[in-house]
Amino acid sequence: MKQIAQNYKSGELAVLDVPAPVCRPGGVLVRSLFSLISTGTEMMKVSEASMSMVGMARARPDQVRKVLDQVQQQGLAATYKKVMNKLDSYTPLGYSLCGVVTEVGAGAEGFRAGQLVACAGNEQALHAEYNWVPVNLCAAVPASVLPEHAAFATVASIAMHGVRRAEVQLGETAAVIGLGLIGQLVVRLLVAAGVQAVGIDPVPDRCRLAEKAGAVACGPPDELDAVLAEVARITSGRGADHVFLSAGGNTNGPVEAAVRLARDRARVVDIGKMKLDLPWNAYYEKELDVRFSRSYGPGRYDTRYELDGIDYPAGYVRWTEKRNLESFLDLLARNELEVATLIDGIFPMADAAKVYGDLKTGALKAIGVLLEYPVPDEDAPAPATKTVLTGAKTPSVRKSSAAAKDRIAIGFVGAGSYASSMLLPQLARLSTASLAHVATTTSLSAVNAQRKFGFATASTDSGSVFADESLDAIFIVTRHATHAKLVCLALETGKAVFVEKPLALTREEAGQIAEAVEKTGNDRLMVGFNRRFAPLLGAMRKGFGASAAAASTRYLVNAGPLAKDSWYLNEEAEGSRFTGEGGHFIDTLSWWAGSLAEEVYAVRGPEKGDVQATFRFANGASGTIAYLTGGNVRFPKETLDVTGGGRSARLDNFKAASVWAGRAKSTTRARGGQDKGQRSEMEAFVEAVRTGAEMPISLDSLLATTRATIAVGESLLSGRPERV
User: Fold this and answer.
1) Given this model, what pLDDT does residue 401 score?
2) Got the DSSP string for 608-636?
3) CATH code at position 280
4) I need a surface site. Which of 179, 186, 431, 451 has the fewest CB within 10 A?
């Protein structure tokens, strides 16, 4: 299928051939008819992509701070690779469309195939021929509403939520500063609600358009006095009850104009993205109530609402994202709102790159721009869920043979940030590995992996990887909750399996994997416990000598806080942070001791997510892990101290390793930045698969580490030591 995307590094905007998404539970597959270009939000993103690196930094100072923190903690080289990997990727555009349901997933039975729907979401309702959309971001379109009008639903919901935030009442007066697409919709909603509206915008045509929609008066900022006079006339000198800031840019003019337009104790609602330097005295003297409007309503940025389909009860949250979509569509159906006059052009989606270019240069001056999608023939085949790279060599069919191969074919399920920055670059450089097939949930992530690393086939259906007989090994790099199930499926194919940590989230899942190994006879399993492969750590253990196995180890992990939108926060579905990451550190201690963990005692720390655990190993060695989330983000993330046999050692965040023995101290420093072992780990795994040698980490060790990680959670609940 076709999808519009942009490379944020180069600024290139293109219509790409990508695999179509599959229909997943909790949503519907939608064939697009019309999608709306947001001439505000999207064009800002398009403009940012054409900036220099310095310009991008100035536009996003919040991201710059994150990058500087990462440099301090992870080093310049590692941070640079991550940032460039993220920038040099195609990113989607679009978030408001209307289309036809082609397939209904389990749990979305409220919809039916052939139904016309309006869809929302900057990761769901994209400028693409097909989209998978979850139920709470999808609304049925009434029969009397044209699809090109329904395509406005998401952007209209942004305006509607802003109006709701103001709590307008019949007979009040409101001023709208900024009469772009959002501002025009705000005016229409205010008029429909019985509110007198005035507008401010530097573009005369926009002012006239708002007046035709029912605004009492509109004018440019340099004629503000005339608008103020009109506001005084219709309010008997009181001033506007509400002021909506729907403009953009770096000027503080809208904020300063708002205070002049507003009456005492008026509400000022910020819908746009602009400079917001409030003149304190003026706002204080009028005691203005400043409110923010967050996107298209309650539920936004809540993954349980948007992706899992968990609705808010109407008795507690009357207007959610979905109910705002439905309300707008209902207003259209009852002819109480119109958007036809906002449409300045409808263009074929194949011309999208030119349309965006004309909008950027000003050659196309427009408020409402729609992209129209081709309607397939009735007997046209279903959209393909995989694409084959032109000119790529298809790996030969896998043969059962004990003989070593020159090269192995690898398939990937998942290709997110970690896989793309830490695993795939290492595999791509190996002459003994061929990247054959990648499957991801979203179309663009599959194409990005294919473009960067040369996968022969890109897909949105993980089942196609498991069914690919040409593969020798399958990598599973998906979210934690999916690992155990996917590992069992992969083992049943008879191929070697690499899964990122954790192997499992519960003892039951670990048991299912052990049963799958026994049932299939396939024990060719590896988990991404990469620390033991780190060169500095290996050198430190060698320098420590024979007393390493009996030494006491202490691992401090400065995990730091999570971003508010991190999927790690969904502990109910994905497990705790420690369950997800702790296996790295337990495996390191187990490897250092040369023994498996047998017992663990864990206590909580002062912050949510903190864990302090003590482990006893089968050979009598002991180790502790302090996994802490409340530290300074620039403090080193990982520090390992070892003591025993008259010796001491310290690993300093994979940047330096020191050993104290007798009166001497030897220190080895990393060259070229941090190396946490991914390169050596990939080499070891590929070589084991290629030659038929033993896996780099034994199955017993993988299962013991996994069960020890789970036992930490059990000990936190029971308050006593737990057997592994």
Assistant:
1) 46
2) TT-EEEEEEETTS-EEEEEEESSS-TTS-
3) 3.40.50.720
4) 431
Helix ranges, 507-596 (H): 507-520, 535-544, 571-574, 577-593
Q: Which of 226, 238, 85, 246 is nearest to 178 (CA)?
A: 246
Render the burial of 636-675: b for 16+ CB within 10 Å, e for the rest.
bbbbbbbebeebbbbbbbbbebbbbbeeeeeeeebeeebb
Residue 430 contacts residue 361 (beta carbons within 8 Å):
no
Rounded distance, CA 40 to CA 38, Å? 5
- The domain boundary residue, chosen from 509, 527, 545: 527
> Exposed (0-12), middle (13-18) or buried (19+): which is 212, by Cβ within 10 Å?
exposed
User: What pLDDT, on the 0 to 100 scale, is given for residue 313?
Assistant: 96
Q: Are residues 228 and 191 in the same domain?
A: yes
Same domain for 698 and 665?
yes
Cα–Cα distance measured from residue 274 to residue 263, given in angstroms and rounded to the nearest whole number: 22
User: Does 167 lie in the same domain as 142?
Assistant: no
| Residue 142 sits in the same domain as residue 234 | no
Spatial contact of 437 and 412, defined as CB atoms under 8 Å apart: yes
| Backbone dihedral angles phi then psi of residue 311, each to the nearest 5 degrees | -80, 160
Confidence of residue 564 (pLDDT cuts 50, 70, 90): confident
| CA neighbor of 513 nearest in space, from 489, 479, 493, 494 | 489
Rounded CA separation 511/488 (Å):
11
Q: Residue 393: pLDDT above 60?
A: no
Looking at residue 399, what is its pLDDT? Answer: 45
pLDDT in the model for residue 429? 95
Residues 188 and 90 in one domain: no
Residues 283 and 324 in one domain: no
Instruction: Verify that 224 and 211 share a domain, yes or no.
Output: yes
Q: What is the pLDDT of residues 265-277, one digit of tens each?
A: 999 999 988 889 9
DSSP state string for 297-341: STTTT-HHHHTT--PPPTTT-S--HHHHHHHHHHHHHTTS---GG
Q: Over the stretch 28-63, which tens digit does the pLDDT of each residue have?
A: 999 999 999 988 778 777 766 565 555 555 555 656
**Residues 518 and 544 placed together within one structural domain of the fold:** no
3-class secondary structure, 239: coil
Among 268, 292, 316, identify where a domain stops. Answer: 292
Distances in Å between the alpha carbon of 599 and those of 579, 585, 723? 16, 15, 4
Assess if residue 379 is contained within a domain: no
For 421, the domain range is 387-398+405-527
- Asked whether 125 and 181 are in contact (CB, 8 A), the reply is no
Give the number of domains in the chain. 4
Residue 375 CB neighbours (<10 A): 10
- Confidence at residue 5, expressed as pLDDT on a 0 to 100 scale: 94
Q: State mean pLDDT over 508-521.
A: 97
Per-residue model confidence as pLDDT tens digits over 205-241: 999 999 999 999 999 999 999 999 999 999 999 999 9
Structure tokens at 273: 């993205």
From 93, 190, 213, 99, select the one nearest 153 (Cα to Cα): 99
Smallest CA-to-CA distance from 479 within 428, 441, 525 is with 441
* Average pLDDT over every residue of 336-343: 96
